[in-house]
Amino acid sequence: TETQAAKDEL
Amino acid sequence: MNLFRLAGDMTHLFSIIVLLLKIHATKSCSGISLKTQELYVIVFLTRYLDLFTRFVSLYNTVMKIVFIGTSFAIVWYMRYHKVVKQTYNKDEDTFKHYFLLLPCFVLALLLHNEFTTMDVLWTFSLYLEAVAILPQLVLLQQSRNIDNLTGNYVFFLGAYRGLYVLNWIYRYFLQDHRARWIPWISGLVQTALYADFFYYYILSWKKHEKLKLPA
């Protein structure tokens, strides 16, 4: 999902 | 991870080191907004709830712990260190930071990807981070004398946001082609808030003068 992908950032 | 992202994280880390260095070495937190620092504690705590539930990489885990730990350390220094706390510009740090929390939370309840506690709080942390610098910028505007370390701290914090925008552009076009609207929009708002500061920072640097923001 978009969320999962974005959460690898700090 | 691309170079912009790494450079962004490093400038973020560097800004925190500059701030801690200023506080520790000069035993002074003058010009630093406690309200902004308290908001960062909330930002990191609500964003990194997945610290123990989702492993991304050792790099991510270490950085998350460092960001949480250093933000607590800064607030501790400003509130409780017997010398440092006396240098805090309490009367000038007037921004009503609590008024930022509720709108950000309501916005996160309305605009998010998944309606789960963790995702709403993660979204809330992005909205809050976007505006968390406001008390600091207001304090700088009221300060007659902005020392170099304080100016550099805000400069590196702004540079981190700018580099993250470049990282998103790079990621979108050259890596995974995924749209991430919530981090993008809040990140752009956050970067825009620094524009005015950057203008005067660079101006003062060119003229070799002390940084001063117009009231």
TrEMBL record, chain B:
The keyword Oxidoreductase does not apply. InterPro entries: ER_ret_rcpt. It is found in: Endoplasmic reticulum membrane. The chain crosses the membrane at residues 58-77, 98-115, 121-140, 152-170, 182-202. Its main location: endoplasmic reticulum. GO terms for biological process: protein retention in ER lumen; protein transport; vesicle-mediated transport. GO terms for cellular component: cis-Golgi network; endoplasmic reticulum; endoplasmic reticulum membrane. It is a multi-pass membrane protein. The keyword Protein transport applies. GO terms for molecular function: ER retention sequence binding. PROSITE patterns: ER_LUMEN_RECEPTOR_1, ER_LUMEN_RECEPTOR_2. Belongs to the ERD2 family. This is ER lumen protein-retaining receptor. The gene is LOC110786094.
